[in-house]
Amino acid sequence: MDSRQIEDRAAEWLVRRDGATEAGTWSGADQRALDGWLAESTAHLVAFLRLEAAWRRAERLKPLGAGMPVGEVPAPDAWQLAPVRPGEASGLPEPAKASKTTLGARWRPGVRWALAASLVLAVAAAATWPLLSAGTVYRTSIGGLASIPMPDGSRVTLNSASEVRIRMTPKERQVFLDHGEAYFEVMRDPSRSFVVVAGTQRVVAVGTAFSVRRGPEGLRVVVTEGKVKLESATRLPLPRVLAGKADADPAVALAAGSMAEIRRGRDVPDQRTLAHAEDEVSWRTGYLIFHDTRLVDAIEEFNRYNVRKIVIDDADLDRIRLSGKFQATEYEAFVRLLERDFSVRASHSERGVSLSAR
Amino acid sequence: MDETLNDWFVREVLPHEAALMRYLSKNWPWREDMHDLRQETYVRMYEAAARGKPVHPRSFLFSTARHLLIDRARRGRVVSIDLMGDSHSLDILVDELTPDRQMRAREELRLVARAYKRLPARCREVVWLRRVAELSQKEVARRLGIGERTVETHLMKGMKALADTLYGGGMAGEDHWRKTGKENASPFGSGHGQQAD
User: Fold this and answer.
1) pTM for this structure?
2) In Å, how far from its chain's centre is CA B106?
3) Distance CA B106, CA A91 (A)
């Protein structure tokens, strides 16, 4: 076999392993077969090492890929790397670990992956920084959790199945929340505000910590520190009765320890103070905390973190209320607890778990 | 398999591939032998390193290559090639400045981007969807409307091309950046290194 044939065989092996590992079908026998081929000759081994090393390096482009709609391949000249400005945060985006989560992956409470946000993708061929920069997209899959440091020292923590686009401009620090939930720890910067944009709503922060959740039901903002302002592109001046204060400013101020919900189809936020604002963002540590929470709400929350879903098949279970702290991705433990303490019967299938009264 | 030796090889030897290819093509006129010469140099290097890691991998790589070329020339009784002509490059112990991590990381990203751009169009689409967008092979096939076997073929081609750019600087052993005037075929046939009489 000549060197080219050997290289072809090595490539075949690498592709096979790559595909089978991804599909979960790479077996011990496969590995032994590969090891056997590699042991046959040093020529096999070095050819394989070389291809494997290059293939690994090719992963580096993942953070840029996150900025592109999936399935769309940029033509060679349609994108370029914009130079990183001096003074920006150091570090390179590691391949976005946030978006590479195998189904059912667990995050250990307290573990955070860091992604650097210093590289900006220029969209047009003639782009010059910063005119046409669209920002950097970060995405987590179900059960994922990612902590993203921003160039200004702020930090964005992405919850399960979420996506944001971070864009720094001289006037504003912007985070576009596409879907899901994120927690923001904002560094004070008097020269520019920090804005989370979710659809037509803008959450403006000065120096605070707060979370924003965007889903089909609407928008939810929880403030744990400092103050934020909710602005709307379309809102009319807020009726005083809802605001609870004499304020004709269309922007709604939200203080620490409170939550605002803007339901889909409505423009006006409902506000209330929270006894346990921190518990609403406990997901950052991998735990869900419930206080006398209805079962259906608890399950809805669990389902956000797990691919296999829990469903309630029995109206009798509506009466159940839960309090306690649960690991978000350990839904099996949660189900067992329901079975044990609440006389629930669980039937498991491929798609998930169905609950009924015993 | 010795994991640390493999890691060492990838980390210390492969980065010098572009320089190795330049050396080989400067000192051996038959471009169709480049692929085989590269691989054979690696084999000898790896096996020597298994017995004892060289202190200066780069210069050891070059002297391995030189000895290989001498062996090949002897076997083929080629007399008119001046293999010693470039010996000064062997003495260059490249004291590489290690640019700071940030710079290197940025350079790496640029290099990887360039490697992708160099892929043929269809191949690039497949590799991109698999590697960057992280679709499964099946999904790539579905998205592009091609068969899974075709996806595999493109991936294999992509892996080889990426390695050629990322390590070889684009010199696959197919490219020959300097014509030496020897256009006739190698006395060895393509990459077999056999006796040529």
Assistant:
1) 0.47
2) 22
3) 9
